[in-house]
């Protein structure tokens, strides 16, 4: 028999159970009209991923149960695999349902529950312990959920139970290693359970996480016979005859690390804005590279017509910065406005009188300037209903080189998980597609321009050194001694940077959410105390 | 044989392993000089609780191992029970050590790992599975760690293994039900394992959690024969002859729900300031009850000499508000200063020109005022090195009745987990001890005074109704339908409030940390998505 299977890579919305069911019914119909016999949706498709503490609410589970009945009815016409949280006898499972001929044909509970990184699945779910093999369409499908394939157990278990292929449904948060790592893991599983694998990954962004799509089908030899597009909702089809799988899709265009990260960030902005009902964005544009890249991403995400660049010069803003900001505004064709912060700054310092230091290069003065900008930008955001995007990068967020309620003010921190050296790489990448960021913005020395003649390197090591220290310590979990041993930075510099990292935790705790693109993003993923005596 | 045991209720500091070891050596010496044969420290005493992701750092475990050796040496003179994280063979255990005669006599790994509420223990620890009975001083001590006694297994297991008493070491975050609940749980365990219990609880605050002390000893019949003071570091002693335990302490003074909550908040401020090197605090004082209670708590915590009240009037500030604020300043004898926000507000609106609505009662105008205050207060905080305390209560944080970067600006949110109705109760309680909050502040209608004639009740249900809705939904996890069924509020009001609750998540995500006093505090304990389609 010849079977056609649809891999449904869909952007589900956490909590919007009815809307998610609507989408599934729609795509099931579409797959049916393409003569598919089975459609496969991703992990926790009905609830969206991750539903977090919504899983503690009885009324949430009621919605899921009602919506599942609709999908059961839909399965009269086409078999459906989907993920849903399942409340049963006071326990909640991260479940997979196989629906067929208007009935629940099979049910599987995820066995390996991730409880590291951004994941809290042991907070919510009870693990299953049984394999689930469904015999349909001349196939013995071994069904698993996401993390199950990151460990040895479930694949081998399904293989032993007679599976002749594996179908894995996933909601796997993107980081820049993930696409490669995912493929490695699948091939590692095939060493233990030599079966073709259908790997359906969700797509869409949810607060700090972005799901990248790129669903895969591997034949028994580990060749990728289908790779669905990244960051794009839609169906992909394969045909199978017994264990012989054939892709019905064209080869997709090649992606690079830069293109994927850029798209992850862009997609993160799109979804955060859409899911939170913002119809546009504001960006404070300084003439520096962070705000230049943020503005470009905002335009690429929401369309230039929905974006406004706001220039907020002070006495310390150089002519060059203004010129470069205005040049970029012209390049992008984006609306802009200019507000001097001087009257507000003057009012603030005259109000504070002798309570503020007389030296206007002092930190309190710098912060007052940054916060005057924050208030002006937020007023525009409140008035227009647009979201204010913050522009700080991961290197700055790490060492606290940012002003709370100043440049940190805003609803979404686009570059929060992007190291400064990556800000440069992404800017160059974007310019290669189409010139959008004035070259000089990329090549000039970075400065916060909060004091005369200031540059970032006055108080920080060069960014290439800083980023290597940070990445080794944060993502690499290396010790100060280990980092010093690799020799690219002095022990003093490393100690100073790590001290700054710990001391800035209180700022990060009040920062806007931003898209995770590394293996250890600030936010839900990295949980350090504010009060600590370790460093 | 007659044995004297010291219960060591100590304020350990997360990450400060050497400092924590110093404290243990000090208290062991003190107990020894009081002729005690055994001193018992709390859960994860060496690392502080909770160490969070520090547990992922090899160098952190190295420090713990080195420090444990010091305690082992100290045990030449006195037996020591202590908690420490223990890295062994790539697994980390939440461990208990029994040190005696300069050796590790016994080792126990916590079996029940909490992974709910504020707890993430399954993120870090591997559970143990064995009982640990130590035979010393004519006792067969069954040793357990915290959550172990909240379930049936470990106590029964120790009893079956021959224990004739239980010693439990704890780091149990306070909430206002905890003191009663703890005693209930211990007595429940005694039904299954009829043994005397020595329950050592830590004391001190760590970011959002406060540990209340109040260590207990129960005899076999469940009578409390010793209750150590709440919120106070120190040693308490019992004597035992076989299973017969006798307290060597005086009966402590009675506590009430109000006194414990008040002390929890006060203690939270003390420890947050101390552990983060702030030598004083600023409070923006409005003449309203939230800032009045916050100021009083700050003075009680840090001493009036280290606190400054800042009055920031605008055109909408009533004479009564100013008078009441000044009256309270006099009552407390605290330093104050006054800064009009008018020049800053004028500068901001003139800068924004026609980009801001002309109607100054509009929300953007209200936010601009709140943020002008935020900038002025933060400038004073930066200049003085004092911490700015925010004054918003839980009811406001729940529905988003607060301005990001405005009244939400600050390092610590003292009343973040205190419902408005509790703000009233605590204010009355404090006034009964000593009059500190002008009566009129308590009795007048609450108003944000950001627009003419505004009161909170213009946009919110009365606080007693609001708080019942919120408490039922947040702590009670009841559905909207269930709350409506109890009849104290209209379905429309409930729906409106719950919608506000979900919509304000983005604000809470950027709020300062504050002390947890309920069973579901905003912060690490309550994990809801910002983007959601559920409500």
Order of strands side by side in the largest beta sheet of chain A? 5-4-3-2-1-14-15
Helix and strand composition category of chain A: alpha/beta
Find the CATH superfamily of the largest domain in chain A: Carbon-nitrogen hydrolase
Multimeric status of the protein: homodimer
Mean pLDDT of chain A: 96
Q: Specify which chain pair forms the largest interface.
A: A-B, 83 and 83 residues
CATH architecture of the largest domain in chain A: 4-Layer Sandwich
Total number of beta strands of chain A: 20
User: Radius of gyration of chain A in whole Å, from Cα?
Assistant: 25 Å
Beta-strand share of residues of chain A: 15-25%
First-last Cα distance of chain A: 65 Å
Model description:
2 copies of one chain form a homodimer. Chain A has 17 helices and 20 strands. Chain A has 2 domains: 3-249, Nitrilase/N-carbamoyl-D-aminoacid amidohydrolase (4-Layer Sandwich), CATH 3.60.110.10; 259-451, 3-Layer(aba) Sandwich (Rossmann fold), CATH 3.40.50. With 535 residues, the first copy, chain A, is of the alpha/beta class. The mean pLDDT of chain A is 96. In chain A, strands 5-4-3-2-1-14-15 form a 7-stranded mixed sheet, with helices on one face. A 6-stranded mixed sheet of chain A has the order 6-7-8-9-12-13, covered by helices on one side. The N and C termini of chain A lie far apart (65 Å). In chain A, α14 packs across α16 (491-503). The first copy, chain A, is elongated and about 80 Å long. Helix content of chain A is 38%, strand content 20%. The interface between A and B is large, with 83 and 83 residues.
